[in-house]
Design brief:
The protein is α/β, with parallel strands linked by helices. It has helices at 18-30, 70-79, 94-99, 101-122, 159-178, 200-210, 229-242, 259-269, 274-277, 296-299, 309-322, 352-362, and strands spanning 9-13, 35-40, 60-64, 84-87, 127-133, 182-187, 189-191, 214-217, 223-228, 248-251, 256-258, 278-281, 378-379, 385-388. The strands form three sheets. A nine-stranded mixed sheet has the order 10-6-5-4-1-2-3-14-13, with helices on both faces. A three-stranded mixed sheet has the order 7-9-11.
């Protein structure tokens, strides 16, 4: 096996969100010699509280801004001497993509293109890890006994998956045309603490806590595979250090369960009668019946799933019970068919200014000379928060 890659300065996009926050925290804590810079625009499903465990760490910085701002991205790469990009930022909720697909194209394709071009321009990136999804493969045959492997054809069936596949094509092209050292990951569903409750498991948990019906699209026979967030964070740690440039890695599990299975397990935890608690609703315009991955390639790097479903679900339920108001008013997300307009505003549910001030206070930061900027420009804070309003740096 080749010598492990050792990064110095890592930019993680979208790390105020669910999966990337667990990755950022794991790496920042475990590798104090690495500098971690987070770029997040704090959309509705992001929360600065997700990053509080490392907000006072001397090797951590937060930047409020949009990956679609080329000036901002180039500025961060140069001033922070970034050598590694871990790109998680994306619009990810399938239901929203059916009614708001242009936002998915803007964020997932254009945003990725901006990052790639910035990396090409600076010429200093030694790893560009692009985070994709199992949904780019499209629907797996119900009787398939072998999952999709990394060379399988991409056949996305919904606007979200199509934009992620499109982003992958750009990543692959920049790897081939410009020699950018790219790695792509495609993962199964992830669950655990801190996840915004538009996704199935936290939605069902919060509804069960309220004694409200659990809405199931269609007949509940759709099959999915679920990985606990800490296992996934470990997978990204392994890929960061041992992944080979130009390769794709599935992050998956062979353990499958239907949506009905998930609902019943949650009902059991809350002592609810599933037949009474579950409510069947209209299906999505298209709802893939099954996603199934071949995970052998990643296992070859030394990773394996550690958290059994029962243990992971218990931990997740305990967290939501203890943090029921973590996201504020999420009533719009708990509807059977939520739409983007029903979500909280783009600043997220938290008090953004207050949370940023807390980041600064915890780091005992002092304000440095900022680059020349307009009134919508930049404020740079040493060892704490870097706040960029409207993502513009001049």
């Amino acid at each position: 096996m080749a010598k492990p890659y050792m990064p110095k300065n890592i930019l993680i996009t979208g790390a105020a969100g669910f999966i990337a926050s667990h990755v950022a925290i794991r790496i920042a804590k475990k590798y104090p010699d690495y500098k971690i810079v987070v770029l997040d625009k704090l959309d509705y499903c992001s929360n600065l509280k997700n990053l509080l465990p490392v907000s006072s760490s001397p090797n951590f910085k937060f930047v409020k801004g949009d990956i679609a701002s080329a000036d901002l991205v180039n500025f961060i790469l140069v001033t922070e001497n970034i050598d590694t990009m871990m790109h998680f930022a994306a619009q990810t909720h399938v239901d929203n993509s059916f009614g708001n697909s242009f936002e998915f194209t803007k964020n997932n394709i254009y945003g990725t293109h901006v990052l790639l071009e910035a990396c090409r321009n600076t010429g200093q990136i030694k790893r560009f890890i692009h985070v994709s999804t199992d949904e780019v493969y499209g629907e797996t045959d119900e009787d398939a006994v072998v999952g999709n492997h990394e060379a399988s054809q991409l056949l996305p069936t919904n606007p979200y998956a199509a934009t992620k596949a499109g982003a992958e094509m750009l990543v692959m092209a920049y790897g081939r045309s410009y020699g950018l050292p790219v790695i792509t990951t495609r993962g199964n569903n992830v669950y655990g603490p801190n996840q915004f409750p538009e996704k199935l498991i936290p939605k069902f948990i919060l509804l069960a806590m309220k004694g409200e019906p659990l809405p199931i699209h269609g007949d509940g026979s759709n099959v999915r595979s679920y990985l606990y967030c800490e296992d996934v964070a470990e997978a990204f740690e392994v890929i960061l250090h041992r992944g080979e440039v130009g390769h794709v890695y599935n992050i998956g599990t062979k353990k499958e369960r239907t949506v009905m299975d998930v609902a019943r397990d949650i009902c059991k935890i809350f002592n609810l009668v599933a037949e009474k608690a579950i409510k069947f609703v209209d299906n999505r315009p298209f709802n893939d019946q099954r996603y199934f991955l071949d995970d052998e390639k990643l296992k070859g790097l030394g990773w394996s799933e550690r958290t059994y479903w029962e243990e992971g679900l218990r931990k997740t339920v305990e967290w939501y019970v203890a943090n029921s108001d973590y996201w504020g008013d999420v009533s719009g997300a708990l509807l059977p068919h939520p739409k983007a307009g029903m979500m909280p505003g783009h600043e997220g549910p938290q008090d953004t200014k207050g949370m940023l001030a807390q980041f600064i206070t915890q780091n005992q930061a002092k304000t440095l000379a900022a680059p020349a900027a307009s009134e919508h420009g930049a404020k740079t804070v040493e060892n704490g928060a870097q706040v960029y309003t409207n993502g513009t740096v001049h």
